[in-house]
Design goal:
With 301 residues, the chain is an alpha/beta fold. It has a single domain (2-297), classed as NAD(P)-binding Rossmann-like Domain (Rossmann fold, 3-Layer(aba) Sandwich). Helix content is 39%, strand content 18%. The protein has helices at residues 11-22, 76-84, 87-98, 134-144, 147-151, 170-180, 199-211, 229-240, 250-265, 274-278, 288-297; strands at 2-6, 26-30, 43-45, 50-52, 61-64, 106-112, 123-124, 155-161, 163-165, 193-194, 196-198, 217-221, 227-228, 270-271. The strands form 5 sheets. A 6-stranded parallel β-sheet has the order 2-1-5-6-8-12, sandwiched between helices. α3 packs parallel to α4. The radius of gyration is 19 Å and the shape is globular. The two termini are 24 Å apart. The mean pLDDT is 95. It binds NADP nicotinamide-adenine-dinucleotide phosphate. The site of NADP nicotinamide-adenine-dinucleotide phosphate has 26 residues, from α1, β6, β9 and α6.
Length: 301
């Protein structure tokens, strides 16, 4: 397949590019940047609303992963970047796809379990209502921004991705230094659910979404075993053989990380991958302990 990939340099995108290339696909990264002279390749500069895809050649699929990283203090300017890099950029991309002489058949677009907001121990499937808060609002608008592609007949899959377990980046990589020093611990009450997925399984989910015609619309990209933050803390401490004795009270999380900490770390989303299970997808790492052991022991993750 000829596949255009945005966000190809990111945590998920770089692993995905290697995997797709090794399975015989032709992947074209759509990197941000200004047009340089008469450069022939595709152009994408979402901040200035510039896009040119006609030179990308015939595309069968698009995987859209680009977006400003959310792991930062959510100042007003950061929130504007986080929102616009998803909502405006997705609309720009999808509108450009509709103008191609031969639009791709499928667009796989990242979204996040943040869609559901802070929901205690309610089990959340794809048809659950959206939640409230900044992330929930961004995710709803992000998904809605693909509407031009859907109306033009493309199959659009919104992957509501949970916490991606990877050694080289993302939440786990940020937690590891403190845990390795024995300074890890639960956050707040520790009762909030964290829905997670091993990077390797997420790449397999994206591959499935490319080819499986029955997958359309929202798909929860999480393992079937969401855990509480306390369970996550114990599993991580066990995986690296260190104690995790230093809980961080909710007030400290909020003081240190502000609204981002409140929503992304203290919020609770117990998400079930109902559509993946219906489609027969078999997780290689459905349980957290094995997923952590694999992730921490694998040089590629
Ligand atoms: N990792 C997770 O745990 C997780 C969980 C849920 C959802 N997701 C979502 O999945 C997608 C990919 O995640 P990731 O972890 O691979 O993200 P990442 O490592 O932060 O990479 C995202 C990529 O997006 C592009 N990008 C960065 N800032 C941008 C901006 N201001 N405007 C437009 N593009 C920008 C960059 O690619 P270029 O420089 O090549 O353009 C960057 O490499 C994101 O949309 C993220 O929200 C991730």
């Amino acid at each position: 397949m000829n596949i255009l990939v945005t966000g190809a340099t990111g945590l998920i995108g770089s692993a995905l590019m290697s995997r797709l290339a090794s399975t015989g696909h032709h992947c074209l990264p759509l990197r941000r940047g200004a047009a340089v002279g008469n450069e022939p390749g595709p152009i994408w500069n979402p901040e200035s609303g510039l896009i040119r895809l006609e030179t990308a050649g015939p595309l069968e699929a698009v995987i859209h992963l680009a977006g400003e990283n959310i792991a930062q203090r959510w100042t007003a300017a950061a929130k504007a970047r986080i929102r616009s890099s998803r909502v405006d950029a997705t609309r720009l991309l999808c509108e450009a796809l509709t103008r191609l002489p031969q639009p791709p058949r499928v667009v796989v677009c990242a979204s996040a379990t943040g869609y559901y907001g802070d929901r205690g121990d309610e089990v959340l499937a794809e048809d659950s209502s959206p939640g409230q808060g900044f992330l929930a609002e961004v995710c709803q608008s992000w998904e809605a921004a693909t509407e031009p592609a859907r109306l033009c007949g493309m199959r659009v899959v919104h992957l509501r991705v949970g916490i991606v377990l990877a050694r080289r980046g993302g939440a786990l990589a940020k937690m590891l230094p403190a845990f390795r020093l024995g300074l890890g611990g639960r956050l707040g009450t520790g009762r909030q659910f964290w829905s997670w997925i091993c990077l390797e399984d997420l790449i397999r989910v994206i591959e499935l979404a490319l080819g499986e015609e029955s997958l359309n619309g929202a798909v929860n990209a999480v393992s079937p075993a969401a855990v509480t933050n306390t369970q996550f803390t114990h599993a991580l401490a066990q995986a690296i053989g260190r104690p995790a004795l230093l809980p961080m009270p909710a007030i400290a999380v909020k003081l240190l990380l502000g609204e981002m900490g409140r929503e992304a770390l203290l919020g609770s989303a117990r998400v079930r991958p109902a559509r993946l299970i219906e489609s027969g997808f078999v997780f290689r790492f459905p349980e957290l302990g094995a997923a952590l052991n694999h992730t921490l022991g694998s040089p590629d993750s």
